[in-house]
Amino acid sequence: MTNIYNNILQSKAKKEKLLAILLDPDKIDLKNLAVLVEKINHSPATHIFIGGSLVETDILDDLIIKIKQNCSLPIILFPGNPSQISNKADGILFLTLISGRNPDFLIEHQVKAAPILKQTHLEIISTGYILIESGTETAVERVSKTIPLDRNNPDLVIATAQAGEMLGNKLIYLEAGSGANQTVPTEMIQLVALNIGIPIIVGGGIVDLQGIQKAYIAGADMVVIGTAFEKNLNFFLNLKSNIVN
Ligand code: 1GP
């Protein structure tokens, strides 16, 4: 049996940093999947996240089966809504958008997803998802109809992360939004890391090695890279030996 969360905790204890590649099934051409998987295998990635706003389950199943044929990294669903569940993955970030006040993303989608998840073997990882203002409106903001937290008000972000931890979230995800103009501020990551005990994921708008390292040094346990790899499959080519651990 897989235990993704325990592995994340162990990495945190050993100060080994983790890296997730986010794949959006709608943007993947199955004909080029072999190349994509080869690039992932030659990257420093430790996890694969799969998610997007329009994904259908049948595409998901097929994609995950094909990735697993040639890649042994844990595949974790990062769903935008309850229809994006596939039993072929290893786990799921069971997200609550705790920065927002939209009941659909706080509890409604989760209630719809629970009976479906009960029928799967997926490892369910309760995750407090915190959207941080990043300059311009991002897709997650649009889809969730929530207002991100002020990037200049770390106190509210800290309190939100603490509330997530107290509610039983196992991870806190600080999200600037896919393709964001501005990443989550490093001081904010630092302050959150000082004030909670659970692992922190950071993503959104990180496009280079410096951005990855800054997030790690500030206290991110895992960094998520989506757009930069999507745009350039060679993104990780020269990064592997340079990533700090
Ligand atoms: C989005 O945090 C992830 O949910 C990744 O963002 O696409 O900007 O890398 P990018």
Automatic annotation (TrEMBL):
Gene3D superfamilies: FMN-linked oxidoreductases (3.20.20.390). Keywords: Lipid biosynthesis, Lipid metabolism, Magnesium, Metal-binding, Phospholipid biosynthesis, Phospholipid metabolism, Transferase. The keyword Membrane does not apply. Pfam families: PcrB. Its EC number is 2.5.1.41. It catalyses: sn-glycerol 1-phosphate + (2E,6E,10E)-geranylgeranyl diphosphate = sn-3-O-(geranylgeranyl)glycerol 1-phosphate + diphosphate. InterPro entries: GGGP/HepGP_synthase_sf, GGGP_HepGP_synthase, GGGP_synth, IGPS_HisA/HisF. Its cofactor is Mg(2+). It comes from the Bacteria. Sn-glycerol 1-phosphate binds at residues 173-179, 204-205, 226-227. GO terms for biological process: glycerophospholipid biosynthetic process. Mg(2+) binds at residues 24, 53. One of its GO terms (molecular function) is phosphoglycerol geranylgeranyltransferase activity. GO terms for cellular component: cytoplasm. The keyword Membrane does not apply. Belongs to the GGGP/HepGP synthase family. Group II subfamily. HAMAP family: GGGP_HepGP_synthase. PANTHER family: GERANYLGERANYLGLYCERYL PHOSPHATE SYNTHASE, IMIDAZOLE GLYCEROL PHOSPHATE SYNTHASE SUBUNIT HISF/H IGP SYNTHASE SUBUNIT HISF/H. Prenyltransferase that catalyzes the transfer of the geranylgeranyl moiety of geranylgeranyl diphosphate (GGPP) to the C3 hydroxyl of sn-glycerol-1-phosphate (G1P). This is Geranylgeranylglyceryl phosphate synthase. It comes from Flavobacterium cellulosilyticum.
